[in-house]
Design goal:
The protein is mainly alpha-helical. The chain has 14 helices and no strands. The chain is globular. The two termini are 28 Å apart.
Length: 242
């Protein structure tokens, strides 16, 4: 665990030593602010004191930002050869993967914290369902964790960051859109199965203020599975040499 935390701290520090962290936070806040307060179905047009517009915009913003953040985690280390240095410093491949994941998740959590003024502003405009807001933020964090795990898995498959970005984006699209399309065209067991596999189904449930154990199990188990696959992939000697 100590090695995992050390790697996470080093990775998080590297985000702030480069423009990466500032770009992620600025881009996310800029897009969310514009569409939440000024454009389309913004809060003032809807006339309701809730953050459903923000959660919808944040969902789409993270869909693009997360693979861009995760694509460099392992691909860059492998390309530069520093992955071998990490693995010889008493850190297992799984600890490296978990450390990278925690650092990325911490940055996403910090980015979401920067949107709390949205919540304070809406609360000042009218009565707010605080439970629904808390569930929405938890849903964003859990969905981000799953997408980050997919992004890190994609980054473990290649030394090219652009390729890792594309693989992650495709994988996320399959879980977000592909499963929903299949579910909409099938009934019975198949439809229920693909509806359960859809990240949109679970996030929308939490964004409405409902915490269901099935949603928690989905995000946590699928995130863990993706991270385990990334650790297994990184442990292969032929991969590290390639």
């Amino acid at each position: 665990m100590r090695a995992t935390l050390l790697i996470a701290r080093k990775e998080l520090a590297s985000f702030f030593d480069s423009p990466m962290a500032y770009l992620v936070i600025t881009a996310f806040l800029g897009v969310c602010s514009f569409f939440t307060w000024w454009f389309g179905t913004d809060i003032f047009i809807r006339g309701q004191a809730d953050l459903s517009t923000f959660f919808n915009v944040a969902n789409w913003s993270l869909f693009i930002l997360i693979p861009a953040l995760a694509m460099r985690t392992l691909a860059e280390e492998r390309k530069s050869g520093t992955i071998d240095l990490l693995l010889t410093r008493h850190a297992t491949p799984q600890q490296v993967v978990n450390g990278k994941f925690l650092a990325c998740l911490a940055l996403i959590a910090l980015t979401l914290l920067c949107t709390l003024p949205f919540y304070a502003t809406v609360a000042a405009l009218g009565p707010v369902d605080h439970g629904a807001v808390a569930c929405g933020y938890l849903g964003l964090l859990l969905m981000s964790a799953f997408y980050l795990a997919l992004g890190i898995l994609a980054s473990s498959l290649t030394t090219n960051q652009v390729t890792a970005f594309v693989i992650a984006l495709v994988a996320m699209a399959v879980f977000h859109f592909g499963t929903s399309v299949v579910a909409a065209n099938f009934t019975g067991t198949i439809g229920q199965l693909f509806r359960y596999l859809s990240t949109g189904t679970h996030f929308e449930s939490m964004a409405r203020g409902v915490i269901d154990s099935r949603d928690l199990v989905y995000f946590l188990s699928f995130s863990a599975a993706a991270l385990l696959l990334a650790g297994h992939r990184l442990a292969r000697p032929t991969l590290r040499q390639g």
